[in-house]
Amino acid sequence: MRALSSSPATSDSNTVHVDLDLVRRYNQPGPRYTSYPTAPHFSEEVTDDAFAQALSEGNAETPLSLYVHLPFCRSLCYYCGCHMKVTHRPEVIERYLGYAKREMEIAAQYIDLDRRVVQVHWGGGTPSYLTPEQIGDLMTHTRSVFSFDPDAEISLEADPRGLTEEHLAAAADAGFNRISYGVQDVDPKVQEAINRVQPTELVENAVRWARMHGFRSINLDLVYGLPHQTSETFSDTVDTVMRLDPERIALFSYAHIPSLRKHQTLIPEADLPEPEEKLRIFKMATERLTGEGGYRFIGMDHFARPDDELAVALDTGNLHRNFQGYSTRAGADVVAFGMSGISQLDGAYTQNIKGLPDYYARIDEGRLATYRGYEVTRDDRVRRAVIMELMCNSLVLKADIESRFDIDFDATFTSAMEALEPMVDDGLVTVTEDAVRVEPEGRLFIRNAAMAFDAYLNASQKRPLYSKTV
Ligand SMILES: C[S@@+](CC[C@H](N)C(=O)[O-])C[C@H]1O[C@@H](n2cnc3c(N)ncnc32)[C@H](O)[C@@H]1O
């Protein structure tokens, strides 16, 4: 039976039909492939010197994507899986911003400053917890250090709680043109259980202000699998979000890993929906968003309006993927600032120190704040190209990979082809003499297809750190 069918022709054929039998079979833990290899393979042998070297190797042809991690939040959401810190002390935030600015200056010593910044993303934590003045000041500093492309895509994550129109005005003045709001769920009972009481009126204001101040794209984040959710209650959240009509929607599966995130123990497991109910929520939300909602399923957790540039890029085979998720900006090196930030250069990935005192100490020494990383090998490059083509464009042309890397595709990927056989038998993947194609029916299981090409998974057969798809 077919799990998923999707085509842009009419709103009816756009609907993604979720076959729960297939979902049950393919719903295994696996990486999200925002990079290959993935972060669990980073090693502390890769130091700030290696990062500095990799930065200085980039040339003016390769554009830059800047990520700034702003970890602070006003209160703790019990489900949160991000690197964040609750603080109510303005001086703590002010101090951090001073260090992030200094870090940009340190990195700039190694970067060819003719390189154009085509993308900026502020993630968190809660970037909108900064004051309007701090938003303007941090961006002014960033622009004084780097050269921005006039068409740069500049986005931030924001929390509708505590947000004012002045925040949106300051962000628009600073050049932000995209914003992503955390909604999660509109049901008061769920909100209570996750310690995030957020009347819908706040989200409505946030969306209205963003439109008034000229943001060209609004994303709303939803999370399913939260305590007390059922497919009936979450249907109200889907209704609300569709009424607000954002350009993009992220529908995340709640990753409950209390062993890694202690505060998640504040959510009693007995309150979480049963696995079967969680699957039903996923099915309902996916089918409604792509059916009556008319959203295109981009891949992984992402949906976009058919005229949004992500949907257009999907149709034209121009989608890309980096630590920020799907993007239309090709081949940019991601340089990250702030504690725990992950940089992604062509030849190396690095992650910054996670604790504030250690991060500050490094910057005080005038050094980059790298604490671990990964130097990409030749084999990684080949597999990365295949995995990213699959994740983004559902199609790998064997001749393209052969000419880019001077390899014999079939000889190199014999075991990957064997691993793909169940998906081929289920009609989710087609392998021909020329290509590997993920069929529309297989797009929900795209990371299962990518996993077949992952040398690290196949070597260890252990996936303890990864969450399931649904
Ligand atoms: C870093 S948060 C930024 C949002 C902002 N801090 C706010 O509160 O609105 C980005 C998104 O990650 C998602 N998220 C956080 N923890 C998660 C978890 N444990 N499982 C799944 N998604 C999660 C939420 O949807 C959240 O909006």
TrEMBL record:
<comment type="subunit">
    <text>Monomer.</text>
</comment>
<feature type="domain" description="Radical SAM core">
    <location>
        <begin position="58"/>
        <end position="292"/>
    </location>
</feature>
<feature type="binding site">
    <location>
        <position position="73"/>
    </location>
    <ligand>
        <name>[4Fe-4S] cluster</name>
    </ligand>
</feature>
<feature type="binding site">
    <location>
        <position position="157"/>
    </location>
    <ligand>
        <name>S-adenosyl-L-methionine 1</name>
    </ligand>
</feature>
<keyword id="KW-0963">Cytoplasm</keyword>
<keyword id="KW-0408">Iron</keyword>
<dbReference type="InterPro" id="IPR010723">
    <property type="entry name" value="HemN_C"/>
</dbReference>
<dbReference type="GO" id="GO:0006782">
    <property type="term" value="P:protoporphyrinogen IX biosynthetic process"/>
</dbReference>
<dbReference type="InterPro" id="IPR058240">
    <property type="entry name" value="rSAM_sf"/>
</dbReference>
<comment type="similarity">
    <text>Belongs to the anaerobic coproporphyrinogen-III oxidase family.</text>
</comment>
<dbReference type="GO" id="GO:0046872">
    <property type="term" value="F:metal ion binding"/>
</dbReference>
<dbReference type="GO" id="GO:0051539">
    <property type="term" value="F:4 iron, 4 sulfur cluster binding"/>
</dbReference>
<dbReference type="InterPro" id="IPR007197">
    <property type="entry name" value="rSAM"/>
</dbReference>
<feature type="binding site">
    <location>
        <begin position="79"/>
        <end position="81"/>
    </location>
    <ligand>
        <name>S-adenosyl-L-methionine 2</name>
    </ligand>
</feature>
<feature type="binding site">
    <location>
        <position position="124"/>
    </location>
    <ligand>
        <name>S-adenosyl-L-methionine 1</name>
    </ligand>
</feature>
<dbReference type="GO" id="GO:0051989">
    <property type="term" value="F:coproporphyrinogen dehydrogenase activity"/>
</dbReference>
<keyword id="KW-0627">Porphyrin biosynthesis</keyword>
<dbReference type="InterPro" id="IPR034505">
    <property type="entry name" value="Coproporphyrinogen-III_oxidase"/>
</dbReference>
<dbReference type="InterPro" id="IPR004558">
    <property type="entry name" value="Coprogen_oxidase_HemN"/>
</dbReference>
<feature type="binding site">
    <location>
        <position position="80"/>
    </location>
    <ligand>
        <name>[4Fe-4S] cluster</name>
    </ligand>
</feature>
<comment type="pathway">
    <text>Porphyrin-containing compound metabolism; protoporphyrin-IX biosynthesis; protoporphyrinogen-IX from coproporphyrinogen-III (AdoMet route): step 1/1.</text>
</comment>
<dbReference type="Pfam" id="PF06969">
    <property type="entry name" value="HemN_C"/>
</dbReference>
<keyword id="KW-0949">S-adenosyl-L-methionine</keyword>
<keyword id="KW-0004">4Fe-4S</keyword>
<keyword id="KW-0411">Iron-sulfur</keyword>
<comment type="function">
    <text>Involved in the heme biosynthesis. Catalyzes the anaerobic oxidative decarboxylation of propionate groups of rings A and B of coproporphyrinogen III to yield the vinyl groups in protoporphyrinogen IX.</text>
</comment>
<feature type="binding site">
    <location>
        <position position="184"/>
    </location>
    <ligand>
        <name>S-adenosyl-L-methionine 2</name>
    </ligand>
</feature>
<dbReference type="GO" id="GO:0004109">
    <property type="term" value="F:coproporphyrinogen oxidase activity"/>
</dbReference>
<keyword id="KW-0560">Oxidoreductase</keyword>
<feature type="binding site">
    <location>
        <position position="255"/>
    </location>
    <ligand>
        <name>S-adenosyl-L-methionine 2</name>
    </ligand>
</feature>
<feature type="binding site">
    <location>
        <position position="67"/>
    </location>
    <ligand>
        <name>S-adenosyl-L-methionine 1</name>
    </ligand>
</feature>
<feature type="binding site">
    <location>
        <position position="196"/>
    </location>
    <ligand>
        <name>S-adenosyl-L-methionine 2</name>
    </ligand>
</feature>
<feature type="binding site">
    <location>
        <position position="342"/>
    </location>
    <ligand>
        <name>S-adenosyl-L-methionine 1</name>
    </ligand>
</feature>
<dbReference type="InterPro" id="IPR013785">
    <property type="entry name" value="Aldolase_TIM"/>
</dbReference>
<dbReference type="Pfam" id="PF04055">
    <property type="entry name" value="Radical_SAM"/>
</dbReference>
<dbReference type="InterPro" id="IPR006638">
    <property type="entry name" value="Elp3/MiaA/NifB-like_rSAM"/>
</dbReference>
<keyword id="KW-0479">Metal-binding</keyword>
<dbReference type="GO" id="GO:0005737">
    <property type="term" value="C:cytoplasm"/>
</dbReference>
<feature type="binding site">
    <location>
        <position position="77"/>
    </location>
    <ligand>
        <name>[4Fe-4S] cluster</name>
    </ligand>
</feature>
<protein>
    <recommendedName>
        <fullName>Coproporphyrinogen-III oxidase</fullName>
        <ecNumber>1.3.98.3</ecNumber>
    </recommendedName>
</protein>
<feature type="binding site">
    <location>
        <begin position="125"/>
        <end position="126"/>
    </location>
    <ligand>
        <name>S-adenosyl-L-methionine 2</name>
    </ligand>
</feature>
<feature type="binding site">
    <location>
        <position position="221"/>
    </location>
    <ligand>
        <name>S-adenosyl-L-methionine 2</name>
    </ligand>
</feature>
